[in-house]
Structures are given as C-alpha cells and as structure tokens.
Structure of MOCS2A:
Amino acid sequence: MFSVLCYFARSRELTEVKEEEVTVATPIKSQDLWTLLLQRHPRLSVLQGHVILAVRQQYVAIGDQSVFLGDGDEVAVIPPLSGG
C-alpha cells in the first residue's frame, strides 16, 4: 500500500520536503513506521521522543500500536509545537 507522508514545522525543515509517497506493508507498528521514516530522513532523529504521528487525522503514539494503512492514506509527522 502506498501512503502520503506529510511533514510539518520542524519535521518539514529537517526533511526538506512537504510530502512524499511511501509504500509500506500493513498492518505496521507505529514504531516500525517511525523507523522507516528515520531511514529515509536520518535528520528526523533529533525529534525522537518528541514527535507524534497522525494517521488519517487521528493521533498515534509511537510504540507497539498497529496501524492499518490503505492506499493514499495520509500519515502526518507532527513535531512539538511552540508559540502562543
């Protein structure tokens, strides 16, 4: 299945892309998905422990949770937000 990865704020700066397509086997654990992202964009490692994923606009903690992705599903990489 292919999914669309969307990067926001600091994650966009680190990857230097707004979005890209990736093919992943599903289901996949959220930790394995994060590992895949780190392989594609090693600079994301500075966000380790501070980032959350959103799959189809639903927050998913990085861990053992299984994620089911369909063709074209959006996965957003959401770093910590700052500001007021």
In short: The longest strand covers residues 2-7. The radius of gyration is 12 Å. The chain has a mean pLDDT of 92.
